[in-house]
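Hello forum,

I keep getting stuck at the same step: I have a sequence, I want structure tokens, and every attempt I make locally crashes halfway through. Rather than fight my setup again tonight, could one of you with a working pipeline run this one for me? It's a single chain of 253 residues.
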Amino acid sequence: MSRTFEDLVTEAESVSVEGWDFSWLRGRADEQRPSWGYQRAMGERMARATAALDIQTGGGEVLAGVPTLPPLVAATESWPPNVVKATRLLHPLGVVVVADEDEPPLPFADEAFDLVVSRHPVTVWWDEIARVLRPGGTYFSQQVGPASVFELVEYFLGPQPQEVRRARHPDEARRAAEAAGLQVVDLRSESLRTEFHDIGAVVYFLRKVIWMVPGFTVDQYRDRLRELHERIVAEGPFVAHTTRFLIEARKPA
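Reply #2:
Ran it on my machine without issues. Output:
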């Protein structure tokens, strides 16, 4: 039997959203993956590095999946519940987790790392990345692109202005990297189909990815959530499009 709106919403409100693990959505939401395979590609670079830094590691899930880590690895994270989770996950692997406010300066010396990585950073401080990279070192990152999942965002917030829709554009990332003295050696972007199969998946997603609909609560958006629930039941999954881009930049030797 189909589950009720209240049942789905209550369940999604009660589940933990700590860390950056989206396994709760398995079977309830589907998202195409970028063709470049970020974790695999990051692992290849980690295997060749001697000292690496993972910025905004979340709960450490992506870094923990790397088969071969360098002799020295550090990770930063700002959200206290994620700091705890990342510490428990990464310390047994020899990774030092540093609680950091995600604002300059990074708590490391100049030229401390030959590899800096970051998956879906909220902010990118390019001058700091350039500072902590050794000459010849690499920054490798998968980032959220412009207007990502905006079909869902605009369902709740209404049409967004062009400057908001264009934020986080890969061309801006290239300009910022080059302004910091880095050479962009790879820049790719893709639009990926995303489907939400029930309203619980929508609630969980918006609770976890808090910048999509700032201040989201079920109580505030209950009427819109109910309308969307009825739409999904009648028409099938709610379809949106995630945007991602890959950027690799090197510090001149």
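The chain has ten helices and eight strands. If your local run keeps crashing, start a new thread with the error log.
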